[in-house]
Task: inverse folding
């Protein structure tokens, strides 16, 4: 049943602080500029004002009532009982209950609740609280700044220090306003063009850093310290007596996750696909929407002219699966199918650059996602749900059981599950590939991949980067040091796989979610990133997710009766962006012209292998050529290269083509 409504949690989308750690007045000269930098886009007023030794500014999520435009409002900031001045971007889950536990008035908002928690629990407060937040505290008497980001915190924080002068903000644009450099970090550029996102602290801009998820940073005049307070390796094992107990525990936490995600929302939309993750979340959401409110579901479909050419294990059109779910919940789900034929590659990209000071990964990704958020905003929705962490929680596939059972000596279980797989290859092949290979050290995996000729040269296939720039920028060395050259799709344990997926989810997602919120006025929330749910599922044994050859066994049991059987038992996967060949073919001439124009930009031409990309685009046979090799050379390499080139030119104040 829906949780009892409490006081609405009115929270901040953006925060920024400029502080002289030695008590100087440097912040006075940039505080108002920094506050003005937060005012761009669709959100609320900016509260701004001086503090002892610095300046604070915070922008509320919700726009002002009526037709009034947002504005900067001069504010006096108050310290808590331990002397801290506190700001918080994001939300604290179960806010009313948390405030009762802390014995504080919820009308003070999340920042004061966080300050009270820190005053009571010290640095353990981030383990006591659950939420999606980044908090910044300034202790003037200690000359110390504390920044903490929750383990599933999609509210970013960027930091720049110039000696004893510290600037921290949700978006780099506020750092620029305070005097931070806006020059692109070529190490970051090289890493991203090799799809190396293992350094979550590095920023796109020289001299800036990001605060990582599950991280606390402490800054004082002498320097700073950083510690990570949560990881999947530290999750405690979860063991119950019966298989049914696992399902019941996840059912309870799914309900609490939806209560937390829906708290403070006004009208809710959702990215709804034909998969277990989003349909499972939707089934819990409709039970908890207040007052019989309908869930506004949005599903991306391929363009009409795109033929259905999915391989046997995939499907392109998810509309039948979505309609089947809507039929189970009449009058509770409003379906909206979005084909976005009018959306061109790169539409609104410059606006995303402007709002977030951050690029998406690929020009092609927005063809499906942007029209959905735009439609949700037009329908009056202020929140859109997703199920981005679903695969690492309730719908985990369990395939890391194979190497785990081998390490544990559970050979009977291992062989039983290998035989039960729907796989035409021999048992010996399955044993080697699924159980042995993930347990080998990276060097051995790389040698085997080389002998099997399964490795590909990124500089002739999926990376748009020139090999000489990759070498000179150190990107190749960092790629190898990160073990990515030997990486496979299979990992040795559930903790390792989840840690990698978790880190990947925070690569660009937080910055882009902030940009979308500012661009469209719609905040993104993921109930599957609810930390108690994440820890519960991560602590379970693999045999709760893989049993008798059936992957995602937990999800299929949990969702029985909640979603259509055609979805619950579906073994194929939906293909998002399946119409990429039609989109690239339609815009081939424009892309050729852009690549030719970029040849005249020396800053771009020394990074991106423009002749190779142009040659691959000309040689491509068109929509009929939809192999993995075609996708690597066209959608991945060209899409990523165009995006990087546009961001380089935008950041260097040139016109975006």
Result:
């Amino acid at each position: 049943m829906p949780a009892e409504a409490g006081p609405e949690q009115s929270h901040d989308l953006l925060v920024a602080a400029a502080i002289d750690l030695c008590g100087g007045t440097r912040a006075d000269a940039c505080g108002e500029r920094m506050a003005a930098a937060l005012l761009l886009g669709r959100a609320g007023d900016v509260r701004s004002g001086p503090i002892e030794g610095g300046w604070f500014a915070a922008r509320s999520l919700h726009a002002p009532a009526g037709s009034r435009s947002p504005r900067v409002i001069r504010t006096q900031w108050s310290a808590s009982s331990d002397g801290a001045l506190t700001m918080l971007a994001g939300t604290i889950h179960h806010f009313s209950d948390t405030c009762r536990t802390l014995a504080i008035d919820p009308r003070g908002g999340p920042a004061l609740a966080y300050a009270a928690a820190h005053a009571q629990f010290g640095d353990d407060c981030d383990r006591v609280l659950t939420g999606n937040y980044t908090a910044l505290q300034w202790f003037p008497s200690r000359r110390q700044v504390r920044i903490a980001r929750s383990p599933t915190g999609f509210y970013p924080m960027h930091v720049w220090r110039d000696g004893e002068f510290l600037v921290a903000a949700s978006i780099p644009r506020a750092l620029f306003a305070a005097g931070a450099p806006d020059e692109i970090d070529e190490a970051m550029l090289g890493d991203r063009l090799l799809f190396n996102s293992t350094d979550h602290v590095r920023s796109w801009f020289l001299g800036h850093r990001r605060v990582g998820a599950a991280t606390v940073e402490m800054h004082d005049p002498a320097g700073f310290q950083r510690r990570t307070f949560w990881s999947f390796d530290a999750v405690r094992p979860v063991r119950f007596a019966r298989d049914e107990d696992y399902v019941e525990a996840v059912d309870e936490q799914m309900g609490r996750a939806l209560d937390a995600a829906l708290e403070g929302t006004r009208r809710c939309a959702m990215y709804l696909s034909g998969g277990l993750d989003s349909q499972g979340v939707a089934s819990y959401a409709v039970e908890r929407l207040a007052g019989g409110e309908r869930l506004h579901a949005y599903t991306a479909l391929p363009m009409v002219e795109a033929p259905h050419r999915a391989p046997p294990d995939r499907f392109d059109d998810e509309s039948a699966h979505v309609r089947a779910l809507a039929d189970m919940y009449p009058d509770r789900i409003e379906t909206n199918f979005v084909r976005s034929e009018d959306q061109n590659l790169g539409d609104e990209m410059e606006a995303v650059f402007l709002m977030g000071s951050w690029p998406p990964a690929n020009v092609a990704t927005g063809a499906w996602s942007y029209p959905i958020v735009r439609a949700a905003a037009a329908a009056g929705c202020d929140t859109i749900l997703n199920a981005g962490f679903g695969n690492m929680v309730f719908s985990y596939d369990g395939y890391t059981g194979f190497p785990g059972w081998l390490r544990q000596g559970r050979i009977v279980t291992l062989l039983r599950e290998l035989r039960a797989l729907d796989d035409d290859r021999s048992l010996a092949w399955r044993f080697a590939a699924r159980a042995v290979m993930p347990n080998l050290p990276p060097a051995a995996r790389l040698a085997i991949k080389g002998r099997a000729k399964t490795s590909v040269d990124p500089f002739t296939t999926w990376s748009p980067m020139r090999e000489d720039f990759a070498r000179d920028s150190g990107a190749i060395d960092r790629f190898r040091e990160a073990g990515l050259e030997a990486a496979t799709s299979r990992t040795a344990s559930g903790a390792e796989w989840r840690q990698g997926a978790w880190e990947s989810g925070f690569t660009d997602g937080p910055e882009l979610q902030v940009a979308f919120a500012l661009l469209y006025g719609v905040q993104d929330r993921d109930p599957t990133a609810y930390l108690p749910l994440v820890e519960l599922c991560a602590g379970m044994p693999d045999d709760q997710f893989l049993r008798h050859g059936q992957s995602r066994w937990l999800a299929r049991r949990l969702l029985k009766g909640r979603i259509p059987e055609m979805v619950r038992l579906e073994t194929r996967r939906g293909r998002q962006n399946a119409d990429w060949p039609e989109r690239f073919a339609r815009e081939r001439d424009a892309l050729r012209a852009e690549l030719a124009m970029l040849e005249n930009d020396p800053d771009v031409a020394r990074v991106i292998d423009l002749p190779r990309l142009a040659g691959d685009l000309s040689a491509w046979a068109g929509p009929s050529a939809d192999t993995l090799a075609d996708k690597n050379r066209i959608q991945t390499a060209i899409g990523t290269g165009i995006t990087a080139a546009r961001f380089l030119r935008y950041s260097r104040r040139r016109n975006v083509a």
About this structure: The chain has 27 helices and 21 strands. The two ends are 52 Å apart (CA to CA). Residues 1-7 have pLDDT under 50 and may be disordered. Residues 12-230 form a domain with the Glutamine Phosphoribosylpyrophosphate, subunit 1, domain 1 fold (CATH 3.60.20.10).
